[in-house]
Amino acid sequence: MELLIGVKIGCLFALLALTLVCGLIPICFKWFQIESATGHRRRVLSLLGCISAGVFLGAGLMHMTAEALERIESEIQKFMMRNRTESEGYSSGDANSAYTDYPYGELVISLGFFFIFFLESLAVQGCRGADGGSKVQEEEMGGARVLGLHSHGPLPSPSQSPFRALVLLLSLSFHSVFEGLAVGLQTTVAATVQLCLAVLAHKGLVVFGVGLRLVQRGTGPRWAVFSILAFALTSPLGLALGLAVAGGDAEGGRGLAQAVLEGVAAGTFLYVTFLEILPRELAGPERPLLKWGCVAAGFAFMAFIALWA
Is the pTM of this model over 0.90? Predict the structure, then answer.
């Protein structure tokens, strides 16, 4: 037992250290700032952004969504089984089958997607001034001309980008807490090390992508460092919670509540991935096949990591 606790504490510090290092690399080195980049360096940064977009896509579909669906389905089945034993004879088998077969996981993820969609629409509607819309549009089009972007439609407005950056960090933070919780709840040293290595492998790339995205969006260094520091603490926090409740079981709907939260986080993450990250990285007309290859490479790596995660 002491060895297992020691391994989990080592995993806690490993998660914290790796997240900080990978997240701070793009922030601390000016080489990653795309605004001041020209020529070959700008092309490399653009392709690096496409790889990070593929990593985010893989993290959203192969990790967050897959884990949320599996967890929600498991908790719904447990909930149905408890209700069935409590009220035997009061409900028909057909009704129970219909309730069990309903895609609850997909519904929860979709609710997370539409919840953030509604909040952003509300924020944009409230912030739109009498002549602010045309001015922002002019600034966007001017920026697009400077960057040499072709017209896939307007880029996300400056008022949307900080909100989406916040949503990205919050959704990833939710997921990271549950990842750390899963590591903390393991009962053997081998299972703990295996799961921790899988988490480290994909989280390092994800947090590097977050740092790169904060830098390329023009976030101030202090806020960027604070964001990475806050994000770095989420997995160790989850692991510490797992250590605190190890040996117990999720009772009274706690497991179902955690599954629902993870599903909502997956939905919000998919919203930001498809409406913010991918459109920005694929906006330029140059080298479309190479960009596709970079996005596919990032996704393929996350799909490969999913074999052990």
Answer: no
